[in-house]
Write a structure and sequence with these properties.
about 270 residues, alpha/beta, 5-stranded parallel beta sheet
């Protein structure tokens, strides 16, 4: 039976160009409401993936996202947010997009059609069996992603996929397929919309849950965040004040000296012991 891409089926809404701005926004909002419910149905697979990633990462493994177009950009986005949020080195979570850095802003012709280039791009990082590779493809048919996952499995590397279609080829290429079935887009085939929103939600879930399990959060606070601007220095200072009961200025001095909330609190308590 032929594979049917539900994500590219005709929109439920016709004559969009004749609608008012309010009507268009209402349609988009109505469809966006469906995304969280679709992601919810995929939670068991997301949980399974995180539980597989954590022990690998504790042995020095990394997370790789790989995708093309919007899917690739969202993987790069999630990876780029890990260092400032959790204080992890950029080498721990890596986003790879078909066509390279140029493709982040401009389409690269035919980049997603090469079945071997994904593996070649991963190989530049010395990928090994401690790592995890997550292929992102809304359609579930992107050759660049499928080829990379198939080659990873041949090398004993854990693979997962995120797609918007059931029983997609990319799911068959992954050890842990994550399928969030969001249905047709308001603009037919525009996977930057619901599919993209769902992909970002799932990527956020994977890395946030992993970082919490890795001890990068205390309570509900980002105690390892990078102090890269005045807002974050202030936030971190207030965390130290709350944790240690110090005056604001003393807490700020301690924070800046030690570089993170966790290090500042640990150092102060060790000195007091």
């Amino acid at each position: 039976m032929a594979f049917i891409k539900i994500s590219e089926q005709p929109s439920l809404y016709n004559d969009l160009e004749k609608k008012s701005t309010g009507e268009i926004l209402h349609y988009i909002n109505e469809e966006d409401k469906k995304v969280a419910l679709a992601v919810e149905k995929a939670l068991p697979q997301i949980e399974k993936l995180v539980n597989e990633i954590v022990p690998r990462m504790k042995r020095g493994g990394r997370i790789f996202y790989i995708g093309a177009g919007t899917s690739g950009r969202l993987g790069v986005l999630d990876a780029s947010e890990i260092p400032p949020t959790f204080g992890m080195d950029p080498s721990w979570v890596i986003g790879i997009i078909a066509g390279g850095e140029k493709a982040l802003r401009n389409p690269v012709e035919n980049a997603e059609d090469d079945t071997m280039q994904g593996w070649l791009d991963l190989s530049k990082f010395g990928i090994n069996e401690k790592d995890t590779v997550i292929g992102i493809a809304a359609s579930g048919t992107t050759p660049y992603v499928i080829g990379a996952l198939e080659e990873c499995r041949r090398h004993g590397i854990l693979t997962a996929s995120i797609s918007s279609n059931p029983d997609a080829p990319v799911s068959q290429a992954a050890d842990i397929p994550i399928e969030m079935i969001v249905g047709p887009e308001v603009v037919t085939g525009s996977s930057r919309m619901k599919s993209g929103t769902g992909q970002k939600m799932i990527c956020n879930m994977i890395t946030t849950a992993t970082m919490i399990r890795m001890g990068r959060v205390k309570g509900n606070r980002m105690v390892n965040m990078q102090l890269s601007n005045a807002k974050l220095v202030d936030r971190g200072t207030r965390m130290v004040v709350e944790e240690l009961g110090l005056p604001y200025d003393e807490a700020k001095r301690l924070l800046l000296f030690h570089g993170s909330v966790k290090n500042a609190v640990d150092a102060y308590r060790n000195e007091e012991a």
